[in-house]
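Q: Structure tokens for this one, please.
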Amino acid sequence: MHGISLLLFLDLLLVASVPAWPYSRTWGYGPSGTVGAGLIVMLWLVLTGQV
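A: Here is the predicted structure, written as tokens:
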């Protein structure tokens, strides 16, 4: 249950890090790419049963 909660939290962070404000459009894929990579790693850990 803890792993799924963490996955949902990382998913929300991924959606929140999409550059929607004019000043954040120059950030590129940095914020969403970092959170997306964390989401993939966490998904892998949950599916293999390590979390």
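A few notes: The chain has a mean pLDDT of 77. The chain is about 65% helix and 0% strand.
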